[in-house]
Amino acid sequence: MGRFFTPERFGRPQFIGGMLLLCFLAQCAWLVGRGLQRSQDAPGEMFQVQAGVRQWTGGPVAGMPSNAAEQVPVPPELESNGGYDPHHSPLWYLIPAAPLALWPKLTHVDSMGIAYWGWLVRAPYLVFGGLLGASLWYVARRLYGDVGGYIALVLYCFSPAMIRSSSLWAAQPEMGAAWGAFGAIFTAMAVAHTLYAPREVVLWNWRRTLLLALSLALAVGCQFSLIIVVPLALAFMLYLAPTRRGAAAGIWATSCVLGALLLYGSYFFHPRALWEGLRHATFLGITWQAFGMMGAYRQLLAQVTQGSPALTLALPVSLLTYSVWPRTRYFGNTAPLLVAGLFLVLGIGTPHYPGLGFQLIAMPFLFVFVAGIIADLLETRYRNLVLASVAGLLAAYVIWNVIELARLAA
Questions:
Q1: If exposure means fewest CB atoms within 10 Å of the residue's CB, which of 124, 143, 395, 398 is most exposed?
Q2: CA of residue 228 relative to chain centroid, distance
Q3: Is residue 140 in a domain?
Q4: Residue 117: which of 186, 45, 60 has the closest Cα?
Q5: Which residues, including other chains, have CB under 8 Å from residue 379's CB and lie 6 or more apart?
Q6: Are 339 and 185 in contact (CB under 8 A)?
Q7: What is the pLDDT of residue 121?
Q8: What is the 3-state secondary structure of 123-189?
Q9: CA 62 to chain centre
């Protein structure tokens, strides 16, 4: 036990990171409380919770036509798809309903009792938000050092989009998909880097293999269109381990099989339900006409800047630095930029997806990219100027976000 609690694992950086995450969770909890006081529950959320509770208590599989006769209106995307959910597997319904299934008295969910059961429904997404922040800090710190980790975590912890999504304040429950996608990409990279060790890598990496499987299942289960992360993870693994591609492909295939089994488990191992659900799923519903509409680009820009106002200044500066300074164009900076760019492009092509979807999932990768560029700039002779500018930007970012949250109390 003494060897586990070492300064390397639990030192000053971990303490600061933990305090920032506590600030994030405090903001989310405060927003949840305000939402429950104002009964900020949407019919879509009620339908999701009721369908999940019914499946947990022995009823039909969620997201299927048998759930059409609920106490609240069926969401339009299900009604137009024969009662099947085109975007989510039953996992999306089971996650918020899981805490309610532990208390039989709460299996009857209605809008009158939201103040009673609302905290339980939102608890999983608070956990996902905290875990995504911890994962982002870990990745950024490993790539860019302590300062890079702090910058990425501050951008995340005071991001209106992340706080709203984690607390379900007028937002779709998408944090499970966001954490799954982020975990799948960076776990795949971590697995590839360990393949150079002189060991039996397939067995030695069983923990990361399970984590990759869990990430893939969570991402795809919460948003079918995130099937895109499956080949993307393989591409990164093959690129990073060119001399061990057989082992990389084997670990990836094992993770895919385990992830598919986890996804099958969300259907409670009903093969027909799985087949019908996947047959009616929309895995990549791109509207190609959207790429020729300026409104789609303006909407994307507005969503990104509103989701994290600091990116309004930090992202253009980072992109300019990346384009003119060859030193910044290494894999640690390029990979998150490529992934974020791909998700933003997909976000333009899927303007009708309910919620922020790809735009929200791209933001943690943007935070990592910006943190990496700033960390590189801090190593130049202009360190003092860059440090003062970044400190001022982040301080204004934090103050602005706290003021906006305080206004909700009025």
A1: 395
A2: 14
A3: yes
A4: 45
A5: none
A6: yes
A7: 87
A8: HHHHHHHHHHHHHHHHHHHHHHHHHHHHHHHHHHHCCHHHHHHHHCCCCCCCHHHHHHHHHHHHHHH
A9: 22
What band does 69 get if pLDDT is binned at 50, 70 and 90? very low
What percentage of residues in the chain have a pLDDT greater than 70? 88
Structural domain including 384 reads 12-407
The pair of structure tokens assigned to 88 is: 């989510």
- What total number of domains does the chain contain? 1
Residue with token string 């019919």:
43
- pLDDT reported for residue 193: 85
DSSP 73: P
Instruction: Tell me the pLDDT tens digit for each residue of 137-191.
Output: 999 999 999 999 999 999 999 999 999 999 988 888 899 999 999 999 999 999 9
Instruction: Taking residues 216-230, report their average pLDDT.
Output: 95
Q: Which residue has the higher pLDDT, 147 or 42?
A: 147
Domain assignment of residue 4, yes or no = no
Contacts of 333 (CB under 8 A, 6+ apart): 322, 369, 372, 373, 376
Whether 40 is in a domain gets the answer: yes
Cα maximum dimension of the chain = 66
Following DSSP, what letter does each residue of 7-47 receive, concatenated?
TTTSSHHHHHHHHHHHHHHHHHHHHHHHHHHTT---HHHHH
- Spatial distance between the Cα atoms of 8 and 11, rounded to a whole number of angstroms: 6
Q: Of how many residues is the chain composed?
A: 410
Nearest 5°: the CA angle 370, 319, 345 is: 90
Can you tell me the distance from the alpha carbon of 232 to that of 239, in angstroms, rounded to the nearest whole number?
11
CA atoms within 13 A of residue 95's CA, in its CB half-sphere: 24
d(CA 91, CA 218): 8
| Cβ-based neighbours of 196, under 8 Å, separated by 6 or more | 241, 244
Residue 77: which residues within 8 A CB-CB, separation 6 or more? 85, 86, 87, 354
